[in-house]
Amino acid sequence: MLKKRHSVKDVLKKLNITDKTLTSYADLMCEVDDNFADSLNKVRKYSGKEIEVIQYMLRRKSEGVLKEMARDEAAEVYYDQTKLDEVLNEFQKLIDKIKQR
Question: What is the model's pTM?
């Protein structure tokens, strides 16, 4: 299944932030995930989950948390949820196989 990727312009409009701010937070997340927002490509594109991660970091920063701490928290949530999704998908595939028998 193809996941929708959002352009930088779309993300800026949605989050109502500057390009400099978005780049700063995306670069910070790249310290944890080399390919965050397709950063290995020339043009960054953001998934819905990556937009949520940026939103989370912005909210935590506005609450007085350091950017690095917000990044660490966001990465923990982001990767834990991603791993959980992978396990659930595998589990669903097994259930589907059993139903076919």
Answer: 0.73
